[in-house]
Amino acid sequence: MAISLVKGQKISLEKESGGGLSKVVMGLGWDPVKRGIFFKKAKSVDLDASCVLFDENKQRVDVVWFRQLRSQDGSIQHTGDNLTGEGEGDDEQIIVQLDKVPANVVSLVFTVNSYSGQTFNELENAYCRLVDSRNGKEVARYTLTGGGPYTAMIMAKLYRHEGEWKMQALGEPAKGKLVWDLVPDIVKIL
Predict the structure, then answer these.
(1) Domains of the chain
(2) d(C-alpha 7, C-alpha 9), whole Å
(3) With a threshold of 0.85, does the pTM exceed it?
(4) Closest Cα to residue 175, out of 129, 122, 94, 112?
(5) Which end of the chain has the least Cβ crowding within 10 Å, N or C?
(6) CA torsion 59→148→31→76, rounded to 10°?
(7) Per-residue pLDDT for the chain (190 aa), expressed as one digit of tens each?
């Protein structure tokens, strides 16, 4: 059973997955708030999931986002941009081959930003989740719904600690249309 994370909570991926975890999927899902007569119409919301790679000196090494779908070393792959949030399940996914992430990368920070400029007040059912790709089992989930006047969130980070990967729910609201706008705020909380 997946752990439902709260802001600031940390977990060991090895422990929660039962060991041998080498490849994970960070999924992002959301629905636009339904508006109009009888709540039939919803305005599309274009959220973008991104992953920023950092070294031990908090220096950005690489960024995976909708304009660069693969990390330079090939260990991280974005599956593509969803422009509406419509449909069931994950709307965007980022696949991470943990065993192939270069040794100089110590943190992978996952962000979400509203490219279309809507705030989180205009979302419902928003979440990020980490899935073990071996069996499709959800390891952890962080609910993003709750609204707010912000257009971005620094969701979570995967980080190396004493030879193993851990996850921390960050849940830090931010403002920005692109992942680049968030990097200064990410560095402050690393």
Answers:
(1) 3-34+42-189 (2.60.60.30)
(2) 6
(3) yes
(4) 112
(5) N
(6) 10
(7) 568 888 889 999 888 887 778 999 999 988 777 665 555 555 677 889 999 999 999 999 999 999 999 999 999 999 987 655 566 678 889 999 999 999 999 999 999 998 888 888 888 788 889 999 989 899 998 887 667 888 899 999 999 999 899 999 998 998 888 898 899 999 999 9
